[in-house]
Write a structure and sequence with these properties.
This protein has five helices and four strands. By secondary structure, the chain is α+β, with helices and mostly antiparallel strands. It is globular, with a radius of gyration of 19 Å.
Length: 149
């Protein structure tokens, strides 16, 4: 009986440590979302960019990111509020751990937007690896620009 308890403890300990680390990473990522929204509202897009992963920066230049964020703010307005609706943590031996957070977000001009964030936690710091906002307002404006009439 004692051997079984020791065996179960040996199996469960890594799971407990992993779940604590996942929870801690999610807490750090949630704080990073709050900082993202504060920087977005302040127009501090270069600050947001400086807190992204190397992979993100290789994919999009700082200048292009700033233009995209300015366009986003022009179309949606300032961030008003967000409610987390989903989260997950994925660990890969090569790519590391990613925290995915989904939000129902209200902007001044669109109260029903959805945001998704992917953060890599590196040395206790959340680095933005991906950001997406889905908005019917953005979709209709993009479609209107494509309509030839």
């Amino acid at each position: 009986m004692h051997k079984i308890n020791r065996f179960l403890l040996t199996l469960s300990l890594p799971l407990l440590l992993l779940s604590c680390s996942a929870s801690e990473g999610t807490d750090i990522a949630e704080l990073a979302v709050e900082e993202f929204h504060a920087s977005y509202n302040a127009g501090a897009y270069a600050t947001i960019y400086s807190n992204t992963t190397d992979a993100f920066q290789q994919y999009v230049s700082k200048e292009k990111f700033i233009r995209l964020m300015q366009r986003l703010k022009n179309n949606l307005g300032p961030h008003v509020s967000s409610t987390r609706i989903s989260w997950s943590v994925k660990t890969d031996l090569i790519l590391g751990t990613s925290n995915y957070l989904g939000y129902q977000t209200a902007y001044e001009k669109d109260k029903q937007a959805k945001e998704t964030f992917e953060f890599k936690i590196q040395d206790g710091i959340a680095r933005l690896n991906n950001f997406n906002v889905a908005s019917l307002l953005l979709a209709s404006r993009t479609q209107a620009k494509r309509t030839p009439f």
